[in-house]
Design a protein that fits this description.
single chain; about 15% strand; 13 helices; about 325 residues
Length: about 325
């Protein structure tokens, strides 16, 4: 299979692909293997028992082996057979280097990162980011909010948002977040100017308007240039910055400047001032890679859901099951 071929290239040795992940054929392959041989099991997800962490399946999966190393941070937030179940049968069960690095940066930064600490929370919806936003508000002195979720906050401030994305059910939540920040003496920075469009399309008509002057019939799709300049100043003294989510619809070139602008700010903070910059999950990682600045960040997380849950302060079952936490 292509995965085994690619792993063989990376390891510079033969990698045998097993026909299954459980059963006699696998046991025989493992029994015949010599020291240093590498065998790749077939995808565990071909069995529904994998995601159900079904005890009988777990036992079969673990049977030919002596110990377990989990280096898949991206699935560590799932209590599946291959992430959590097998640890009951294999000892020691330990983390690999990547998983350890993820925990060191993500968990380490949030629990004991150098201050001043800032969080950049972006993306389209308050509903999917509210838990991480509240958790980071407790830990960070400064918060930048970007992406589609901005407009729920602007509406909460009583401003007109045109046809921008708003989650009406979360307007009160946005008010509560702003009130909590004020009470804790934390600063939330919202955009001061917005790039608005007449439709959601790469070739839409656009204009830059003040955040409190979004015209009817127009939708906000990115931060304006003044906002990026303010963000640079706002973050200039920060020693630790965690980014989760883009500032706009960066997939369309016309609305990518806000996201790429903040990526540049973070990369420069690390390069020039030695700040710790952590990029957590999904779209933020894609934006860093597209911008060509990924290599300048301190840490780019390999997990979407896993990094979000870790930032939210949740215990990851795949990590909790290991011996060397």
């Amino acid at each position: 299979g292509p995965c085994a071929e690619r792993m063989a290239e990376l390891l510079d040795c033969d990698v045998k692909l097993a026909p299954d992940c459980i059963g006699d054929d696998v046991a025989a392959m493992v029994a015949d293997a010599k020291e240093g041989d590498v065998i790749m099991l077939e995808n565990t997800r071909f069995y529904k028992e994998e995601t159900k962490n079904e005890a009988e399946f777990v036992e079969k999966l673990a049977k030919p082996f002596d110990m377990f190393v989990n280096d898949a941070f991206g699935t560590a937030h799932r209590a599946h057979a291959s992430t959590e179940g097998v640890t009951k049968f294999l000892s020691p069960s330990v983390s690999g280097f990547l998983l350890a690095k993820e925990l060191e940066y993500l968990d380490g930064a949030i629990t004991s990162g150098e201050k001043p600490m800032a969080a950049i929370v972006g993306g389209s919806k308050v509903s999917s980011k509210i838990t991480v936003l509240e958790a980071l508000l407790d830990k960070c002195e400064k918060i930048i909010i970007g992406g589609g979720m901005v407009f729920t906050f602007l509406k909460a401030k009583g401003l007109n948002v045109g046809t921008s994305l708003v989650e009406d059910d979360f307007v009160d939540t946005a008010k509560e977040v702003m009130a909590k920040a004020e009470k804790l003496g934390k600063t939330i920075l919202l955009p001061s100017d917005i790039i608005v469009a007449d439709k959601f399309a790469p070739d839409a008509e656009t204009q830059v308007v003040a955040a409190d002057a979004i015209p009817d019939g127009w939708m906000g799709l990115d931060n304006g240039p003044a906002t990026t300049a303010e963000q640079k100043e706002f973050l200039s003294d920060c020693k630790t910055v965690i980014m989760n989510g883009p500032m706009g619809v960066f997939e369309f070139e016309a609305f990518s400047k806000g996201t790429f602008g903040i990526v540049d700010i973070l990369a420069d903070l690390t390069k020039e001032k030695g700040a710790i910059t952590i990029i957590g999950g999904g779209d933020s990682v894609a934006a860093c890679e597209q911008s060509g600045r990924a290599g300048d960040m301190s840490h780019i997380s390999t997990g979407g859901g896993a990094s979000l849950e870790l930032m939210e302060g949740k215990v990851l079952p795949g990590v909790a099951a290991l011996a060397d936490k």
